[in-house]
Amino acid sequence: MIRFAAAACIFMFLLVPAAIAADLSGTYGVNGTNPDGTRYTGTAKIVMKPGRCRVNWVHGNNTSYGTCKLSGKTFSVDFVLNGSRGTVVYELRSNGNLAGVWWMRGMKSRKGRETLFLKQATSPSV
């Protein structure tokens, strides 16, 4: 019985940090490159709650928003920018940054790149 309790404690100790790490909620700085090569900067806010994931970006005079999904180290967002739909697929890096490629619907061959870096974490919403 003692071995089982010890094993359960170790399992919970390992499981809780993984659940917290899976919550990317926070405010991020944005560095990106458009498909035409022009660069942009801005901020992004990720809000993850059980059953819901949203991202809002502000870059220059533009704002965009989207719904997101985290699967392993892949963070994908379907977004709307100026009335047009697009997709961005990020990879969660070991340093906590999200590095990704994005495109607008119907123009998948014209891709931009974007990196998000954490500025301020939000408390996990577990």
Given this structure, which CATH class is correct? Mainly Beta
If you consult CATH, what is the topology? Lipocalin
Please state how the strands of the largest beta sheet are arranged side by side.
1-2-3-4-5-6-7-8
Low-confidence stretches: 4-21
Structural class: alpha+beta
State which percent range the strand residues make up. Answer: over 45%
In short:
This protein has 126 residues and is of the alpha+beta class. The chain is built from 1 helix and 8 strands, in the order αββββββββ.
Write the layout of secondary structure elements.
Layout: H1 2-21, E1 26-33, E2 39-49, E3 52-59, E4 62-71, E5 74-81, E6 84-92, E7 98-104, E8 112-121
Antiparallel strand pairs: 1-2, 1-8, 2-3, 3-4, 4-5, 5-6, 6-7, 7-8
What does this structure look like?
The protein is α+β, with helices and mostly antiparallel strands and 126 residues long. The chain has a single domain (2-121), classed as Quinohemoprotein amine dehydrogenase alpha subunit, domain 2 (Lipocalin, Beta Barrel), CATH 2.40.128.120. The chain is 16% helix and 56% strand. It has one helix spanning 2-21, and strands spanning 26-33, 39-49, 52-59, 62-71, 74-81, 84-92, 98-104, 112-121. An eight-stranded antiparallel beta barrel has the order 1-2-3-4-5-6-7-8. β6 (84-92) and β7 form a beta hairpin.
